[in-house]
Amino acid sequence: MRPPIDFGSILITGACSVLGREFARQLSHRARTLVLVCPHVERLETLSEELQARNPTLGVVLLRADIALPNEVDRVMNELASHLITPGVLVSAAGVGPQAPFAQQSWEDVQRTLQANIVAPLLLMHRLLPSMLARKSGGILHVGSGNSQLFLPGLAAASAAHRCLDGFLESLRLEVEGSGVVITYAAPGPVGDPRREDPAAPEAHAPFFRLSAAQCARKILAGFDRAEPLVYPGTGHRWVMGLLPMLPRPLRRALGRFAAGRRAEEGTGGSSPRLARGLQALLPPGTPSPGATGLNR
Predict the structure, then answer these.
(1) Do 157 and 196 belong together in one domain?
(2) pLDDT digits (tens, 9 = 90+) for 237-282
(3) Beta bridge pairs of residue 10
(4) DSSP type of residue 191
(5) Same domain, 196 and 57
(6) How far apart are CA 50 and CA 280, in angstroms?
(7) Total domain count for the chain?
């Protein structure tokens, strides 16, 4: 059983993101229609031209919508109906994750995180799944994060959202088992090289696990094509993610503190001073302050 990608209609949320763009590129030679959802569709006009140059028979529809806002999913569904499009595949790649200690975030930021990472994906699936079941053919690919296996200070709400979707999709997969609908949860690790966009950005701390966006999208789509329930793209990332659940919780907390220290260190380099201050407060007593030589080693 495979998702109906070939000659099908595919809805991609988060199409402005690095991975969203790569999904569109790699699906362009297979799909009949791509519907790309993004709050800033003007950023996708060049991509749309590129996709149609790759495949002149491809239909590309750009929908302006920010699914982190209430009622935007219903507007997307109305737009699809107006274009007479019934997606056979949903690629859910939209998400937000403000990096700050939970108590320092505004409740509006928390609500936006939960809306974009939980409510909107579930609502889209709820709207699209009945037609997939009726056709006995469909596919849902949700792109979360390897954070779902980690305890990460500064990303509490986002981590909770990823865990929620992981558990939800495992249960939903059992509900639709044997129906012809493929459901895959992808949990990538670091994607891309920040220094390609900003030469002053700090060197990646886990180069062995870091994939380019093209590599990551390719591995995720290959797993989706094989109807894999869970995809950890990249050999090193998959090995670590498989190991993490077996570690004692105190050790996983220690790893979370270490990750917090790393991100706090990066924050002092100019990426997020607020995050750096907040995360430093979460570190255990005696931990070197961000930027100290002890933490750089």
Answers:
(1) yes
(2) 888 888 888 889 888 888 888 877 766 665 544 344 444 444 444 4
(3) 34, 89
(4) B
(5) yes
(6) 44
(7) 2
